[in-house]
């Protein structure tokens, strides 16, 4: 690109200043919206429950009172609330993973698939289904365990390949991740073809597209620990993440230990991706879209971007899952189908905007 | 990143521990027998040079002579294979990365990707080495950032997107970031690259006005001759000549290092040395004296 400029040209061009929405009030607004969406997600469904009853059930459970007879205690507490909370945690986690990944490989269009970890997790889960490692009620947790094991193994493999040459350079990470991911998804496809009966194929496909239908309280434990922990860690590294956006040399000149920071980011994003895929399958586009949209609203500074991405991701997935549960009477849609339907056109729009602005 | 003082950090002579403000601290850089390998090749092979307090020290040399690699070692993007970079007599490797970044600010040749950062956010990054995890901006940070923006004439552009700026504006913003870093040494890698002559002159004037210890690589020998107090000529990873520009930039050296024919005359306006190249010379001059240099032919 030619950088030669004519004097005064900058003055003619309409100076597009960034509309900076203050992050504090926005975060508050998102938090309130998230609470409302969670309430709606628990209230709406095949049985409609008044919001007041939702909160009274939750309150009685939390304070240790016996459930009031004749209420929808079971539906609220055992079915819908864990599912709504899982959607919120997974959405927040995907928002964080996407934000960190994009800084890590210095590409605003990166997502966890770049690391191959989701492919590894999928392979683990599909292997568990097809080989029948878990059946019946044990399937949920067995599946998650297999998915997480797959994620960890992939993480170790990509790590070993990417660190050769010492640097965790962005291109090297991406190439190692994509290559290993493709290799693993080849195996996954093979296993799907080998799946014995229609029921197996169906559950594999459902899982591959991403779904929150397996939600239960025990399943919430891992993301409930991992998501807040990762948010804290990334928030502590926010200035380093900002510096990485400008380039490795710039970051080094600002006193950031680039190799160490990259190593931390890679480990953290891989582990969190593993946890998320283990509990919800490979939900497409959320990790890619959420940071991108949030950046348009609050700008690129990670000190604001990280919490806003987490909140917006949570809100988005709670709403999308609610749509998936209630859109069709007879069956529910896998959440990944809807995120793809929303995400792909949104991505095209953003690409167009990016290329159109000539930068 | 943790940016606070770490146990084991060396204290620099004469350094004020508290504040670390933008006072008139001046430091000196000594590069001693520096060897740096990059991509498996030894690019800097035993360089010695000094960047004296408050002076503009220029690095010149053909492409591939090791200028960028040497500078990257000073701002700690690369590690030396052997030899040392001394800041006020202390090996920078004994300092934490954040600590040496409070003394040495860099302007590398990077453009950054489009991440919706504003001009102000880019300049505020200069405060990175001073901030602990979770720490926000305080009044002193805001003041430094505002002053840095004003110093480069970009105060009215602070809300614009960085990637929308012209090349000249962008370099000024990056310079403001280095100013906001409140370091006593500035290291700049080809800061005038891709700029038209107006913006080149403007940027170099900003550097001269700053009066910090400055280590800068420049392609334009005439620019180097007029703004630098001292020049070091790099050739095949070694410093082959050092001194005041008029002592260094002689026709024999230009033929030897750059392989070009040139006359050195006096600039009619400034009195600085002015190199008049013979762009019509028929063949590249091969002095063939630089020993191990098969790459003696310059690529321009």
Task: Write structural notes for this entry.
The complex is a heterodimer of chains A (359) and B (300). Chain A contains 15 helices and no strands. Chain A has helices at residues 9-12, 23-43, 51-62, 73-104, 117-130, 139-163, 170-194, 198-208, 217-236, 238-246, 248-253, 258-280, 286-298, 302-326, 335-356. Chain B is of the alpha/beta class and 300 residues long. Chain B is built from 9 helices and 12 strands. Chain B has helices at 67-74, 97-101, 119-124, 139-151, 167-180, 197-210, 221-227, 245-248, 251-258, and strands at residues 29-38, 41-51, 56-60, 82-87, 90-91, 104-107, 185-189, 213-217, 230-235, 238-243, 262-266, 273-277. In chain B, the strands form 3 sheets. In chain B, strands 6-7-8-3-9-10 form a 6-stranded mixed beta sheet, sandwiched between helices. In chain B, α4 runs antiparallel to α5 (167-180). Mean pLDDT of chain B is 86; it is low at 1-9, 16-23 and 288-300. The chains are: A mainly alpha (359), B alpha/beta (300). Chains A and B meet through α10 and α11 of A and α2, β6 and α5 of B.
Unreliable residue runs of chain B? 1-9, 16-23, 288-300
Mean pLDDT of chain A: 84
Largest sheet of chain A: none
Low-confidence stretches of chain A: 1-16
Q: Count up the helices of chain B.
A: 9
Q: Kindly name the structural category of chain A.
A: mainly alpha
What is the level-2 CATH architecture name of chain A? Orthogonal Bundle
Report the span from N to C terminus of chain B.
42 Å
Shape of chain A: globular
């Amino acid at each position: 690109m030619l950088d030669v400029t004519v004097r005064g040209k900058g003055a003619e061009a309409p100076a597009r200043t960034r509309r900076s929405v203050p992050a504090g009030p926005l975060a508050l607004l998102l938090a309130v919206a998230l609470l409302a969406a969670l309430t709606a997600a628990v209230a709406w469904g095949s049985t409609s429950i008044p919001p007041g009853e939702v909160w009274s059930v939750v309150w009685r459970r939390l304070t240790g009172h016996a459930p009031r007879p004749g209420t929808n205690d079971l539906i609220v507490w055992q079915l819908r609330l864990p599912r709504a909370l899982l959607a919120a945690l997974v959405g927040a986690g995907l928002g964080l993973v996407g934000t960190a990944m994009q800084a890590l490989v210095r590409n605003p269009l990166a997502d966890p698939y770049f690391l191959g970890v989701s492919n590894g997790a999928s392979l683990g889960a599909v292997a568990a289904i097809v080989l029948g490692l878990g059946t019946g009620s044990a399937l949920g947790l067995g599946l998650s365990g297999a998915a997480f094991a797959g994620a960890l193994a992939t993480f170790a493999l990509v790590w070993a390949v990417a660190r050769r040459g010492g640097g965790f350079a962005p291109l090297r990470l991406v190439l190692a991740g994509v290559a290993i991911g493709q290799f693993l998804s080849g195996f996954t496809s093979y296993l799907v073809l080998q799946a014995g009966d229609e029921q197996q194929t169906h559950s594999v496909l459902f899982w591959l597209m991403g779904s929150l239908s397996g939600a239960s309280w025990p399943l919430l434990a891992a993301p409930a620990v991992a998501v807040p922990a990762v948010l804290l860690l990334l928030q502590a590294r926010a200035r380093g993440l900002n510096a990485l956006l400008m380039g490795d040399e710039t970051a080094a000149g600002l006193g950031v230990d680039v190799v160490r920071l990259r190593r931390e980011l890679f480990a953290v994003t891989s582990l969190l991706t593993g946890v998320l895929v283990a509990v919800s399958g490979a939900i497409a586009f959320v990790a890619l879209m959420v940071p991108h949209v949030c950046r348009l609203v609050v700008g690129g500074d990670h000190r604001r971007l990280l919490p806003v991405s987490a909140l917006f991701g949570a809100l988005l997935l709670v709403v999308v899952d609610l749509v998936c549960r209630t859109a069709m009477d007879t069956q529910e849609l896998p959440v990944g189908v809807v995120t793809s339907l929303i995400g792909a056109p949104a991505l095209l729009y953003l690409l167009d905007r990016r290329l159109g602005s000539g930068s | 990143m943790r940016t606070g003082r770490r146990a084991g950090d060396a204290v620099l002579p004469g350094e004020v521990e508290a504040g670390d403000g933008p006072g008139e601290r001046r430091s000196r850089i000594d590069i001693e027998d520096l060897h740096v390998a990059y991509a498996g090749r030894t690019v800097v092979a035993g360089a010695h040079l000094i960047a004296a307090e408050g002076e503009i020290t220029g690095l010149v040399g053909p492409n591939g002579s090791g200028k960028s690699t040497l500078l990257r070692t000073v701002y700690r993007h690369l590690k030396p294979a052997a030899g040392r970079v001394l800041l006020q007599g202390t090996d920078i490797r004994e300092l934490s990365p954040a600590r040496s970044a409070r003394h040495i600010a860099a302007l590398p040749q990077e453009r950054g990707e489009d991440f919706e950062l504003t001009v102000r956010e880019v300049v505020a990054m200069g405060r990175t080495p001073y901030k602990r995890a979770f720490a926000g901006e305080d009044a002193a940070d805001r003041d430094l950032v505002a002053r840095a923006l004003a110093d480069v004439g970009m105060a009215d552009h602070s809300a614009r997107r960085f990637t929308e700026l012209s090349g000249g504006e962008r370099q000024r913003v990056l310079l403001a970031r280095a100013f906001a870093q409140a370091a006593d040494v500035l290291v700049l890698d080809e800061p005038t690259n891709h700029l038209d002559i107006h913006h080149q002159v403007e940027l170099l004037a900003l550097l001269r006005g700053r009066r910090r210890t400055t280590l800068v690589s420049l392609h334009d020998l005439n620019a180097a001759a007029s703004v630098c107090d001292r020049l070091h000529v790099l050739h095949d990873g070694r410093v082959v000549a050092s001194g005041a520009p008029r002592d260094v930039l002689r026709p024999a050296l230009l033929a030897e290092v750059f392989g070009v024919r040139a006359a050195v005359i006096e600039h009619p306006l400034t009195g600085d040395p002015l190199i008049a190249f013979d762009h019509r010379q028929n063949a590249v001059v091969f002095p063939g004296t630089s020993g191990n240099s098969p790459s003696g032919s310059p690529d321009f």
